[in-house]
Amino acid sequence: MNYISVLNNQTIPFSAIPEINYTLFLELNTGFVVNHSERHCVNYFGFPFGDKLKLICCIADDFSHEIFVSSSLVNPSDNLPSFTAINYCFEKFEREINENFGLNYLDHPWLKPVRYANNRFDKSKIIANYPFFSIESEELHEVAVGPIHAGIIEPGHFRFICNGEQILHLEIQLGYQHRGIETLFLEKKKLLERATIAENITGDTVVGHTTAFSHLYESLSGFEASRDIEYARTLALELERMAIHTGDLSAVCADVAYQLGNAVFGRLRTPIINFMQEWGGNRLSKGLIRPLRNQFPFTKALAVRLKEVLDAYEPDFTEMNTELFKLPSALSRFERTGIISYNDILSIGSVGMAARASGLNRDIRTSHPYSLYAEIKHEPIIKHHGDVYSRVQIRKEEVWQSIKYIRHLIENVPEYSPKETTLKTLQPDSFAISLVEGWRGEICHCAITDAKGELMLYKVKDPSFHNWLALALAVRNNEISDFPICNKSFNLSYTGHDL
Fold first, then answer.
1. CB atoms inside a 10 Å sphere around CB 79
2. Domain residue ranges in the chain
3. How high is the pLDDT of residue 153?
């Protein structure tokens, strides 16, 4: 067979990944996703392998719960046909491979730098000279926003081409937050150091990324987490989802000048993150999730306290949403603003909430379940209009859904299992993959170990890597004054993209 089928959080021998010639590799992986909405690329990357470049592609089948993994060995100086020319969902993966290793694609339609990593192949390409798309016209004008913004958001540059107030094209330039995260996973040898790196990949998805790292590390070390460990991770993931969605509802209210909603949703976020501090000592959940152990056991006393928090939160959250979704001035800004179609979402490979708002069912909790999600029997919330209104509705309904899941979980708190005291070593010459559905969407961590069991490669993909292009497409034909609300309705990560 030209590929190997693995499951989420599974470790296999690295040698078990079939190595095929590039022509077959291209045909195989592009063929997997053609006319298949239930299949998509979860990761595609390269790394030096002797004097050549090893390419590994991972295609998830959301119906069968499998992940198809294949590889190809190419010369870095090769000029190759691109996956992207056949299916656009591969475009950013190939741009990253080109930036990192200089591998040239003959027919890639948008072969530009992605991150401007310090160890990039061509140091002459600098972020100050990013090759923006431009149109020469006496009627059109460009509007540049950032990278330094008036608010507290992270740095990113937005270049609009407009006809009057109408946006014709938006190009988003990132790369200002590159910290060498993947290299740090290799340089730092202590488990605590690596866990700390994972929880700092992006500050609003601490639980999501640290859970992915923990599952990957445990898979590579042959450790089977006890129920109380997976219970804590499931609970924390849903609390993180609640907190961020609530904060985002506050932010979208601010962007349409609805001060009451901004204030109330902002207030409601606070008790959720304060509870995280009660549980684990940090409002952003840093230090809470760790491989091999239940760092802060969730107790029956905490369950009583969390029920009190939810009992106070839920009626106010419901009332505020009732007011928001009957307010004509808010609805007029949400409805039919920032539309991205199902076909475009499918074409570019969007994931998570951005995909579900346009009718594409992408949710790792059901397609590749982990922790306690198989027991919960999660049902993804799907909307079909692909506008700001759909994305805001998903936030509202996912909060209610998270409350339901959390109330169910705290009815039966598992007993605490003692900490693992034996130092675990990683399996040598192995490949592992972990998928987690963060609040924003699909997180993917991949790792390869060498003959000594040391990490040889660590590859991170945040959902924002897929979804920034969705924002650029969504704002087309909108007025430029609608960009803030479109942007916030996605709320994508700069650090998660740049790594």
1. 10
2. 1-114, 181-498
3. 76
- pLDDT above 70 covers a percentage of the chain that reads 99
- Rounded to two decimals, the pTM is 0.96
Identify the CA nearest to 202 among candidates 432, 460, 402: 460
> Are the CB atoms for 405 and 236 separated by under 8 Å?
no
Closest by CA to 427, choosing from 233, 270, 222, is 222
- Cα radius of gyration rounded to whole Å, the chain: 22
Asked if residues 497 and 180 have their Cβ atoms less than 8 Å apart, the reply is no
**Residue range 171-215, pLDDT digits in tens:** 999 998 888 999 999 999 999 999 999 999 999 999 999 999 999
Select from 3.40.50.2300, 3.40.50.1370, 1.10.645.10, 3.40.50.1240 the CATH code of 181-498.
1.10.645.10
List, as one string, the DSSP characters of 129-149: G--------SS-EEEEE-SS-
Helix (H, G, I), strand (E, B) or coil at 479: strand
pLDDT tens column, 394-443: 999 999 999 999 999 999 999 998 876 666 799 999 999 999 999 999 99
User: What percent of the chain shows pLDDT beyond 90?
Assistant: 90
